Amino acid sequence: MSQPILEVCDLCRSFGGLKAVHNLNFAVEPQTIHGLIGPNGAGKTTTFNVISGFYAPSSGKVVYQGRDVSGMKTSKLAEIGLIRTFQGTTLFQEFSVIDNVRIGCHNSARSGFFSRITGMDRAVETAALDKAHELLAFFGLSEIANEPAASLPHGHQRALGMAVALAADPKIILLDEPFTGMNPDETARMMELVRDVRRRGITVMLVEHDMKAVMGLCDVITVMNFGSRLVEGTPDAVRNDPKVIEAYLGRAIDAA
Ligand SMILES: Nc1ncnc2c1ncn2[C@@H]1O[C@H](COP(=O)(O)OP(=O)(O)OP(=O)(O)O)[C@@H](O)[C@H]1O
Ligand SMILES: [Mg+2]
Question: Is 228 touching ligand 1 by the criterion CB < 6 Å?
Fold first, then answer.
């Protein structure tokens, strides 16, 4: 087996007396789609927050490409290829679709953000624009490149959010509930986009409650409960595990 691209080792994160993440262990293999599921409050978002540098771990380690990155800043992690998206959209609503992606490219180009948006560095500017157009084509957004982001339907806004994340040239992308609020068509399209992202050689880690999407996409699923790993395995193994059914899926299926 290859070296995992991402590992958490005995990871803990407390808030006051509450152990939101407690002795959590898992490893993500390169170029897989790896799911992180579990009941509300299990600690999934906190885990993403610690991995991506928004919170420092209380104890334990986050290892990325063999290197201990525990407590490293979000901006530094983004520079070395670990990108996290948020639930909901974080677009510049009044900017056009293409400009949102072009600005996203600033992380992977050499010159600064300021020179990029003021057009001071023409060569870099042209390269960013080419890359932004390529990403829009990849996500099927070329025809609406000049529309303001605010005018897009929900599914397109989410696709644009992914295009912006990809503009930073990630090696691994952490998606927190990318399917929330989507209709079935948007969900199907987003599933294809996530597969396309993996085909580009990017590892995907996914927190999601939409079981159809999770089971249909993931190679491996880690199930969390009370801050720890309950079970890990293939979608089929997880789906049929009595511990998972009791802690989570029974309820998730009842709710569906
Ligand atoms: N900043 C914080 N301060 C205090 N408690 C927090 C904070 N963030 C999370 N928690 C608590 O930690 C626990 C885990 O929360 P977390 O958001 O990680 O769960 P989750 O698995 O993402 O749940 P959901 O599926 O509902 O999104 C919860 O009890 C939550 O209230
Ligand atoms: Mg959450």
Answer: no
